[in-house]
Amino acid sequence: MQTTRQTYHEELGGLERLLLQMGTLAIDMVTEAVESLKHGDLALSEKVIANDDVVDGMDQQIEALCMRLLALQQPMAKDLRKIGTAMKVITDLERIGDHAVDIAKISRKMVHQFFISKPLVDVSALGEMTTSMLRNSLEALVRHDTNLAKQICVDDDRVDDEFKALREQLLSPQREDISRTAASAYMLLAVVALERIADHATNIAERVYYIETGHMEHLARAHRLEGGAPPSGE
Question: Contacts by 155-160 with C-beta closer than 8 Å and gap 24+?
Fold first, then answer.
């Protein structure tokens, strides 16, 4: 017969597995949204939009489990930080799913309204950097890796640089074709969504640092105050 403590640790393990499942789905949604935008793939767009309900359902499921653990087990110290962090992380993951849906809807609009099957700017690099940050943030969470969490904040600066470059291209005075003005505006919204996803990945990385150290640090801001120097070994 299982003890209350054994059940508690099993539920903590289940919480981590659910977080990973939700995070994996969020990664898939972002990847597929970017692919739909790059290739005008309407089937992928619809798949991403449909998965939004799945992410929302997992959000509610994980929140309910966290509340149960808090109410019945009264966790302390690191376990309390894990559960509190889980409730923060699912908010970031749910919003990441929302941003992926926004990109998918923009992709659909590009094809149906503007008859454009390829993006006005190359989003490949930004998409790859963003999904890599999100993947690494989940890996840092599972592995309890504070060094990887710090690296994600370094990568966020690179995403910001790429975002600014794409924004300049989309706002460039050379885009004088009035028929492309609205399409450029929607494309800019997609690029903004990718930049926001990277910000949410950074939030998750900062929560990893909090779980492991007990200190809430704004790692991205600290990195910038230090001059943006990359970690040793780069």
Answer: 155/129, 155/198, 156/198, 156/199, 156/201, 156/202, 156/220, 157/220, 157/223, 157/224, 157/228, 158/129, 159/126, 159/129, 159/130, 159/133, 159/194, 159/195, 159/198, 160/195, 160/198
